Write the structure tokens for this entry.
Amino acid sequence: MKKRPLLIYLSLVLLCTVVGAQEIPSYQIKNSDNAEGWRIDSIHYYDFDGLINDSILFWRDIYSINEYGQKSSIITYLADVGFTFSPYTKQEFIYDEWQNEIIHNTYGWNSVSSTWEHMDRIHKHYHPGDTLIESSASAVPDGSAWKKQDSAYYTRDELNRIDSVIEFFWSSGSSVYEPTKILRKVYNANNLVESDTSYIYDNNNWLLYRTRNLYYNGAGNIIEGIRLKWNESSQEWKNGDSLVWSYDANQNPTFIESFDWDETSLEWVYEMYFIQTFDNNGNLDLMRQFTWNEDLQEIEKGVTGDHFWGLHIFIGMEELSTSQALKVFPNPAREQVNVHVDEDCELVMLNMSGQQVLSATLTKGNNNIKLSDYPNGTFLLRTSGTKERASFKLMISR
């Protein structure tokens, strides 16, 4: 019986690769430009006889936040059960003047040389004159140079929704990006993805590969996703697998069921299910996985993950979070826009040439701003106050 790999297993493998652990350096929180968070997972593996393995994983993340509330770096430390931390990975984010992320660097910690080693980087490019992402490309170090890896190109529809993603890989032999896959999205009346269909490139032809149909509840959460596979021989869609979600009153996904399609019996076969519980803050508290054994016709225990979030407190990030400090709706906007702020502050609006086209004093709560004097396009809203500083990209579209 097929079993899907779980991220939880990967996490355990990653932990086992950490050697030469050292005490985490002293980190004094001096101002709200820094933030710190914890995540502690206790992972249990079961078989028919009960518990066979018990491990505890600890993550500690040190955040650096820029003046606009954007993450500028994240350093992740892993710890053993003795609370001895070792640096593991570092992420570095670089933005342009409009706070578009243009470079994402990832580093790994070399415990032998006690240095950070560049693992990969992603460059993101944008259409001239607006903030819509156009393409991204990744590369990995290759000696003293960078080796191109893969790339993606994005297209959007008239409502600014991504309607296709074209993926490429770098061919060193021909020194060109060769196409590999296209993912096309279709939206419903509520602007939710109704289906996505992927195509693969084979012998200079685009071939249908698979599609996924998504269904939602009234709160906009997915309740079922059915994936179909394209049969090139019979030129028809065949059922592949299915996931079904159930939610609690707070719209937390508490029960997730997985099914596989059996071509012999022509029916859905139970594969596994997950049970999740959440704490009072909506954080994942417990995840348990159970697998259906078709041969024995019984449920077997798989993995239990205990997530401890008691120390998951972000100092500064909550104060600087764009979603907390500045809420803008609707977006895209037409003749007016509502700007909700958490304190009295000053607002400026800049066009894509960097020119200030509006300034206003906002009061705590909701503020209505008229946009009839401004053309269609993308603008940057910035606020500044006693403790809040945030930015937001607004599109005007009539």
Observations:
- Confidence is low (pLDDT under 50) at residues 1-34, 309-324.
- Residues 325-396 form a domain with the Immunoglobulin-like fold (CATH 2.60.40.3080).
- The longest strand covers residues 50-65.
- Residues 2 and 321 are 42 Å apart (CA to CA).
